[in-house]
Amino acid sequence: MKARITKRGAAVPDIETLTPMSDELRVPQPTDESIRSMLVTLERDADLTLSPIERLFLATDGTVTHMLEALTRGDVSVSILDRAVADNRLFRTVALVPDAERNPLVWARSTVRLSPLADTVADELVDGEIGIGDVLREECTETRREIVEMNVHSTADRFPSFVESDAACLLERTYQIYAADTRIMTITEYFPKDRLSTYRTP
């Protein structure tokens, strides 16, 4: 089972390949209806049912770390799995891990263009240990996010090498972050299917 739902005209990275970003690409801002359509199409094509929490995490344009903290009622740490700078771009892979647990709830791979960013923002992303959303918020950087792809992988597919999970199914979404109409980041996040839905009200 594999479903790949991409906004028309959007360019997204392959699972294991981070594609350099072009200043010329301008993806129209998605509407609420387009996000709903992506979710409906994903469920239909993959023949699965997403839980309300999974739909929220796939569709949100907020900070996933904060959503996880609200969901788990605890702190969530950003574990840097890999980080490298090349051609004035930062390539970063992280896992988001609740402090009360050992297993990550989310993995994320990012490509960040450093040249448009303030030095303080670029330095924190290259050397810091906190999430991208928190860095942008602390530096008062005005940005917007656009979701461009939702995807599903089953155990029959090849999971990204940095995702260590025994889940039967992996949910994926890719979004882009813009500052002053310039695309500065492309981020792909991975969620084990059904894992987020285990958190219930006591």
From TrEMBL:
One example GO MF annotation: lyase activity
InterPro entries: Chorismate_lyase_/UTRA_dom_sf, Rv2949c-like
Keyword Glycosyltransferase in annotation: no
Pfam name, any one: Rv2949c-like
Keywords assigned: Lyase, Pyruvate
Protein name: 4-hydroxybenzoate synthetase (Chorismate-pyruvate lyase)
Organism of provenance: Natronorubrum texcoconense
SUPFAM superfamilies the UniProt entry points to: Chorismate lyase-like
